[in-house]
Amino acid sequence: xERAQEHVSTGGPDQPARRPGETGTALELLVHGVxxxxxxxxxxxxxxxxxxxxxxxxxxxxxDDVDAETSPDSHRRDGPVPEAYVWCNLTSGxxxxxLWLLLLPFMVVNLAHWMRPTxxxxxxxxxxxxxxxxxxxxxxxxxLVAAACEVALDLAAWQCAGTPACADRHSWLGFLSPAVSDxxxxxxxxxxxxxxxxxxxxxxxxxxxxSKRTWSDYESQQPIDRAxxxxxxxxxxxxxxxxxxxxxxxxxRLRAAHTAAGLITVAAAVASAAARRDREPGGPALLNxxxxxxxxxxxxxxxxxxxxxxxxxxxxxxxxRELDERLxxxxxxxxxxxxxxxxxxxxxxxxxxxxxxxxxxxxxxxxIALVQGLLVIVLAVVAHTLHRTDPDRRAxxxxxxxxxxAMLACALGGVMSGGVSQRVSDWLDGTGTSIDGPPVLxxxxxxxxxxxxxxxxxxxxxxxxxxxxxxxxEREAVARDYPDEAQDRARTRRIAYTRAMAALxxxxxxxxxxxxxxxxxLGAGALVGALTTxxxxxxxxxxxxxxxxxxxxxxxxxxxxxxxxxxxxxxTWGRRAYKDAxxxxxxxxxxxxxxxxxxxxxxxxxxxxxxxxxxDLTWRMATWTRTTGGxxxxxxxxxxxxLAAAAAWQxxxxxxxxxxxxTYGSPLERLYGRWFPxxxxxAALSSLHREVDCWRNLYRLTDPIGGPMRLPGDGGHHxxxxxxxxxxxxxxxxxxxxxxxxxxxxxxxxxxxxxxxRRKLLARLRPGLPAPRHPGEPPCPGPExxxxxxSGRSSA
Length: 796
Fold this sequence. Notes:
- The structure is a single chain.
- By secondary structure, the chain is mainly alpha-helical.
- Helices cover 55% and strands 5% of the residues.
- The protein has 27 helices and eight strands.
């Protein structure tokens, strides 16, 4: 791939402008969608040149267009200069992206932060919503580290190494076993725990490193720093605020707090076992006092962690370059010192101390589950209160999308932690009789997975029936859309089925609602069962009806196997993604959607690629409009349209008026507007329509992701092109002698409507200042000008 230095001015927006002749050259800035692509495919040319950017994200041109705006023949161009912004390496670059699968619960809970309903005049309630999500994120960190402690400290070092039968089967644990090593130095229970603490400590350090590394690569990119213009205030969305895409201060604070929380969890797991031994009758008085002081210090540090998480949210109204350096350094350092003291305290010689039973972990996992359930319930109350202040009929679950997703994040974290514990326990204890195994609560949580899967199967059956009904209804619509064609029953069914499957996207909120609600109820039942019986489901059901006992035994065994299967698939998928670029790109689609938002609730979530991509696009648009007079169309497909809208909001209003927006296959309203109403709701999209020079949106009924904008009033009339025909031809025609494929979400540029809409947008734009809109003049070409508006139906 060819490279070149940038041939156009890319100076800051406040630097003296260099206008290359005001030739009127137009620019089309193409932004691809999920999954990524190559600049050659985007520009339809094998010879491309990188004009600005790096190996992670860059802007490319055709080799023949490098000097298009300064060339003497630029006025003879028939179309705009195409540029391609390629950002796919932000989410699916090298093999380390496969490690992000471990961070999936953190990403999901971070999404819940941005799903709050629209609210006006409820700043305290909005802050409370963000605080509750941040606390839920903190519990997920503690849960993950506690699961690592359960595996390393309890199952391996405490139970297996302390049981001769288990230690004999695993020779690598021999030096920790009092029987195998004949009372060796490491065989003391406290020293075993201190050595095993290296595993959860290393996990915490890995999470810190990943967050720190990605923080320097992504969040360190500064947006344009400019003085706000008078007409910027009162915007219905926060996406245009100067500091929205620069959250490094909050990420640094949360990273310090979560790192300290992980280290404190390890220290508490090690110290609590030794302190319990010292409190027994006849225990050493001095060590008992030291244990009490250490536990008090750990509690104080835990309170400091919670205070840091609660103290500050995001600062978006200004570009905040400050860092709380003392806090960021001292809090993890204090937790590390306490961990070192805990290891020394546990490793002290205690004659006669033997390991038996389980470490006191049931209370830990039970407490985490209880706190998470209460946080989700309170979050739902707060979200409902916000929704009532400014109801949005299109918002999913009537504003409860955030609490539902937060519940799924907690459930996902519980399944992952319980799955690892169950698998390691089965691996260590092949007979199932030598060690007690993981805490009872984890077994109960595994046992509720089969009932949850039954509910999901019923839901998918309902979706299948609904798709069949929609497909039958769409057959008549397909016949109306192709009235002059001889009908082919198989062809009609295929088109109708594709439309029906695409329409199922709008039923997604119901799936999330039912899954989240059932998960909350089953999780509460598992918690109550574990705390009241202190036995596994099979043991607790003994003496009851045979049907009940059989169901409990089946659920317990099946749940354990399902968790094991899921864990194996999870590891296999990650391993394949690490080695296979194609598989890594598939996983990258998940990150394209899930990591668009800044890390506001969890610092260990995968990094926000938009904190790099949005400033890139904003700088490119700002410098172009400043140096050339401003003929620019930003053309975004799928997730690229979301980046394009976010970048347009970051422009100054004067520059925003020089930009036209062309979106196709866009989830702006269908997904983002419904799931994130506070930022992409009707008011926000309507303001974007008013503030850019023109906006046109293309979609298909066969597209499961893109859809119309549905702006209120005349906004939707002027923004949305009628649904494009897909396929372009029903049968064989002279222009298309072979059967036309059903394109769905791809290849929008192959439709003639795309070139026509782009031509109309460019015709409106002129070099220099944009022409004022006269009273009664539509802001964009209306649908009466659309040559291919085949029907007025909107997406189902």
